[in-house]
Design a protein that fits this description.
This protein is an alpha/beta fold. About 45% of the residues lie in helices and about 15% in strands. The strands form 3 sheets. The protein has a 7-stranded mixed beta sheet. A hairpin with a 7-residue loop joins strand 8 and strand 9. The relative contact order is 0.13.
Length: about 475
């Protein structure tokens, strides 16, 4: 187990986005929560510091919470490859799929338990009585009992789930529920994912960072230069420096690993984009088939993390390989218009700027997840006023209002409907513009970090009150 330090951030750039009233409320309410905790801290525990939505949220919320007066800290668990294999299998089952097809039997539970016991010893070096510990997802759920034994209040935070319970969710739930049952409260992203075995469930939707490198404003020239520097677009591999509202400038100099047939796409050609993990639930291969079937002009870019940059997902390489084979099977005229991109992860701020540019360059953004907790990349695209085609899965149904802030696929597996949606957003630019503008307004009102932090402050205060009583 190791602590991930949070960077220091000023509140002034957030005030420019949120306005004086929202920023002042954030200071007042988080300051009050901090005073209630006294010398205590709010600890976040998860399985990785890079890659995926949980790590991204923590990199945003932790610094902002500290700037507003709440002592927030972050721990990442350690595990061997077998632990991560079991953990990935567990997460897949909670999503409602078989994952790698392996079991969650007695031997898997013993190995999981050994990993958690080892991390529990390290946890005792950090957590003190009166602290609040937020355990993110199923991977570290086995630490809930240890955190409570140390005198902390504990929340289990689930970022995922299945809209339709089945035998896999029941098996995954049977594995993790004995640990979760010991939590003081549980938090979910959407009501559809609340389970019967979760104690005191609450709903807190995630949010995006409007001032971070991934969502800050970029000019059209910066977008083209960033994507040219990484090799995603034509324009050469010239490194460049990008100013950011918070922290030092970002150097964009590492090329992406791009699989394509032919030269890079020109900057003035439309591009359909999906950015996500190399995860079977993101259905990158399905997006490729839908794009080809849509018949639209332009290019498709499927972008995920560098396969060596996400430590807690042993299936990423397998999923990418399936996408590569599907790409190779395309007719040459379609293969030339589709590219698979692995984005460098050595510098997370550089990675964020590249994702920002890719989303802003997109003529259409797709998030065709077969299952989803909360679609951060969808929210990012909405903030950038991009026309969005998203699956009606998990939190995406809450985020996207069909026909108002984007288009929703009623059946995430329906490739014909996906092709129709891509074609509609690509050809009806008036519709695309209207949906994009409304999407940005919705994110401003509902999915910026002050709202999420205020929700957490209320829950933390309630837990502190219970312990004090």
């Amino acid at each position: 187990m190791r602590e991930v330090p949070f960077r220091q951030v000023p509140l002034a750039p957030y005030e420019q986005v949120l306005g004086e009233r929202r920023t002042a409320r954030l200071r007042v309410e988080l300051g009050r929560t901090g005073r209630l905790l006294g010398d205590g801290a709010v600890w976040n525990v998860n399985s990785t510091a890079a890659g995926g939505g949980v790590a991204e949220l923590l990199h945003t919320l932790g610094p902002l919470a500290r700037a507003a007066g709440l002592n927030t800290r972050w721990l990442v668990v350690d595990g061997d490859p077998e632990f991560y294999t079991v953990a990935k299998r567990l997460v897949s089952m909670l999503y409602g799929i078989a994952g790698d097809g392996g079991a969650l039997g007695a031997e898997e539970r013993r190995h999981y338990r050994r990993a958690m016991d080892s991390n529990a010893e390290a946890l005792a070096e950090y957590v003190r009585p009166g602290d609040v510990v937020i355990v993110h997802e199923a991977q570290p759920a086995g630490l809930i009992e240890a955190a409570r034994a140390l005198g902390a209040s504990v929340v289990w935070r689930s970022h995922i789930g299945s809209d339709t319970p089945n035998r896999f969710t029941r098996e995954g739930g049977a594995f993790v529920s004995p640990y979760v049952a010991q939590a003081d409260a549980t938090v979910f992203s959407t009501p559809a994912h609340v389970t019967g075995w979760a104690p005191r469930p609450q709903i807190i939707a995630p949010s995006i960072d409007p001032c971070g490198p991934k969502n800050m404003a970029l000019s059209a020239g910066q977008v083209a230069a960033v994507l040219g520097a990484t090799g995603i677009l034509a324009g050469g591999h010239r490194p460049l420096t990008v100013p950011v509202p918070i922290g030092p400038d970002v150097e964009v100099r590492r090329p992406a690993q791009v699989l394509r047939d032919g030269p890079p796409p020109p900057a003035d050609v439309p591009m359909v984009v999906q950015v996500s993990r190399w995860d079977r639930l993101k259905d990158m291969g399905g997006v490729m088939r839908a794009f080809v079937d849509s018949g639209v002009d332009g290019y498709l870019t499927l972008a995920g993390a560098d396969l060596s940059g996400v430590t807690d997902d042993p299936e990423a390489a397998e999923v990418y390989e399936r996408c590569r084979r599907a790409w190779e099977d395309l007719p040459p005229e379609h293969r030339r218009r589709c590219q698979l991109v692995c984005l460098p992860m050595a510098d997370l701020r550089e990675n964020a700027v590249v994702v920002n540019a890719l989303q802003r360059h997109a003529s259409v953004v797709v998030q065709k997840s077969l299952a989803e907790g909360f679609g951060l990349t969808a929210t990012e695209a909405m903030w950038k006023a991009r026309p969005l085609l998203a699956a009606a899965a998990g939190g995406l149904r809450d985020q996207v209002r069909d026909g108002e802030t984007g288009l929703l696929l009623g059946d995430p597996a329906d490739l014909a409907a996906a092709a129709t949606g891509i074609r509609m957003l690509s050809t009806d630019r008036a519709l695309a513009g209207r949906l994009g503008a409304a999407a940005r307004r919705r994110v401003h009102d509902q999915y910026l970090p002050d709202r999420q932090l205020l929700d957490w402050a209320r829950l933390i205060e309630s837990l502190a009150g219970v312990r004090a009583a």
